[in-house]
Amino acid sequence: MVRRRYVNIVVAGVAWTVLVAGTISAQVPAAPNVPAQPSAPAGNPAAGGPRMDRPGRAAPERWRSMSPDDRQRFQTNVERWRQMPPEARRELREREGWRQERLKREADAAIRQSGLQLEAERRQQFELRYMQERKRVEQELRRELREKREREMAPVVERLKKEFTPQAGSVTPASPTLASPAASPK
């Protein structure tokens, strides 16, 4: 029961992160090889910037760009969030706040390390791009780790399959290391 609740909390946290990340990525389109150009202030829709008072305005485009699996996962996470008790929601919001603060500190450290002296608007653009690129790198690392795990676990499963397949006419112990040849009667 405790494990299931923990899993639900983690999944809701992921849903919250996806929601926040979706809002961030919807506000600033990623342009990996194009240098950033000065743009309109973020809160000025007349000048071309998204409205900050209604972050969900870009949601229909984001929703249409999602794969069916991502849409299903998002809907499942939203439902889990709705069913979550208020104290669990509060805890997840706090964790997300801490995570955002950590990312901001790391973006600030990256700016300091780069030696750039940026005005407020350009600094905000740098932070948003840093977070987008970091998310991309982390997704790629998770994908690589998953693929490596699958590659390395396939032979393990085969070895265990052979080890635990009962031999015809003999009783096999649960583990070959438990039975020694000297202990077996003749």
Structure in words:
The chain is mainly alpha-helical. It has a domain at 2-97. Helices cover 66% and strands 0% of the residues. It is built from 5 helices and no strands. The chain is extended, with a radius of gyration of 25 Å. Residues 23-54 and 178-186 have low confidence and may be disordered.
Main attributes?
mainly alpha; 186 residues; 5 helices
Short description:
This protein has 186 residues and is an all-alpha fold.
Q: What is the secondary structure topology, with strand pairs?
A:
Elements (H helix, E strand, L loop, with lengths): L1 H26 L31 H7 L2 H16 L2 H29 L5 H45 L22
Radius of gyration: 25 Å
Query: Residue share in helices?
Result: 55-70%
- Give, in order, the helices and strands: HHHHH
Sheet-strand content, in percent, reads under 5%
Shape: extended
Distance, first to last CA: 49 Å
Uncertain residue segments: 23-54, 178-186
Largest sheet: none
Total beta strands: 0
Count the DSSP helices.
Answer: 5
| Helix/strand class | mainly alpha
On the 0 to 100 scale, the average pLDDT is: 74
